[in-house]
Amino acid sequence: MTGTSEAGDGRIGNWKVGVVTSIRRESASGRSITIDVPRWGGNIAGQHTDVRLTAANGYTAVRSYSVASAGAGDRIELAVDRLPTGEVSPYLVDTLREGDELELRGPLGGWFVWTPQQTESVQLIGGGSGIVPLMAMIRSHEASGSTAPFRLLYSVRTPLDAFFRAELESPSANLEVTWIFTRGAPSGWSRPAGRITAADLEAHGFPAALSPTVFVCGPTGFVETVASALVALGHEPNRVKTERFGGA
Amino acid sequence: MAVISRGFVGRGGEVNPDLPAGQYLTADFPVLSSGPTPHIDTVDWQFSIRTDSDTLHTWNWEELHALPVEDINTDIHCVTRWSKLGTSWRGVSLDTLFATVKTTDEYVMARSYGGYTTNVPLADLLGGQAWIALEFDGAKLDPEHGGPARLLIPHLYFWKSAKWIHGLEMQSQDEPGFWEQNGYNMYGDPWLEQRYW
User: What does pTM read for this prediction?
Assistant: First the structure.
């Protein structure tokens, strides 16, 4: 039996102390945070990290966040959306400053990941801050010079709620980006604002016949809708990888 | 030696002794699944235990419901750090299902509709510790939460409580299941914080 304690988790190691090097506002409720983490050692696109906060009285809170960056090196980027009733996310979005220390443990996870060795078509479907692990895949795809065809469907309330907007508005040659606005679309936008439907997936996603690997990340309701529609469109359930947050 | 997070106070309050280290209380019921939710008609549903002698013990939906159904009140702990205290379930005890099963194997691979797997020692399924759960909070189990039936092993992290349970396979050695191959602990005791490899 493994029976590892924290100290015994050799593969991911103990808590590491990172230093926040820069912070960028992404939306009204979200921002990205770049952190130098000595001994991080790089991560695969799609992996996540535990973040631990400790109050002066010793109280601690830990949550997992997807890493928005990928590849070798000890500098990582997180992107966090403030949950109104959250305990850790409001601190990361509103209080944390450049130069602050932050404890991290990772990288974690070996399922919802993409590596440049994969050559098949990849369909990414993100809702809200569910874009974060998909962004790591997009960046890994571009940085590696991969020629695997990539498509992204990104659903957000309004253009102002989009994370990584500038980066996604000028995608690389092998990436096609389709925006879905659920509450307010820019004027002149042909698709009326509304939640993602099977028709959106059919019109803008890779067809099931191509057997793409599909990564879906977002709130539970979004992921349930999208994953069910994909299976109905003929995608093999075992080629549809999901990551969800929030209750049902 | 923890780093103090400047300006962080947290929710505060007293330490809850029912909450394992590193967990927080949640009122809702988060869903975590690695793929699409399978939808299984109870007409087609089947549960089986396959033993070392390659014998298959099988129950359909009616046969399972003909067995004693127990009320279960328990805390549950997810490796993604949420815990729910005092949840109520109804289900059939694995003790009941294993009553007629003869095996010398000590390990079990749980297999779900949709292909999910997770490994558990047999000892953790017996002795009033595990159930095939059919209801949560007075209602039949939603597909998102593993309906029509899921494994319930509340003393281990909740990924061991396989949703859409289809069968148990006895094995002589402990082999890793799905999350156990993807970074999570072979056993998963929340009180020892056995989260990862």
Answer: 0.92
A2 falls within a domain = no
Q: Which CATH number does the domain housing residue B152 bear?
A: 3.90.420.10
What whole-number distance in Å separates Cα of residue B21 and Cα of residue B15? 10
Domain that holds residue A17: 9-108
Q: Is residue A240 part of a domain?
A: yes
Q: Is the Cβ pair B144, A224 closer than 8 Å?
A: yes
Cα separation, A118 vs B181, in Å, equals: 19
> Which tokens is B128 given?
């009033």
Tokens of A140: 């890994």
Find the residue in A nearest to B11 (Cα).
A87
pLDDT (average), residues A7-19 = 69
Residue of A55, A64, A240 with shortest CB distance to B9: A55
Interface test with B, best of A115, A220, A236 (most B CBs within 10 A): A220
The whole-number pLDDT of residue B15 equals: 76
Q: Determine whether the interchain pair A3/B8 forms a contact, defined as Cβ–Cβ distance below 8 Å.
A: no
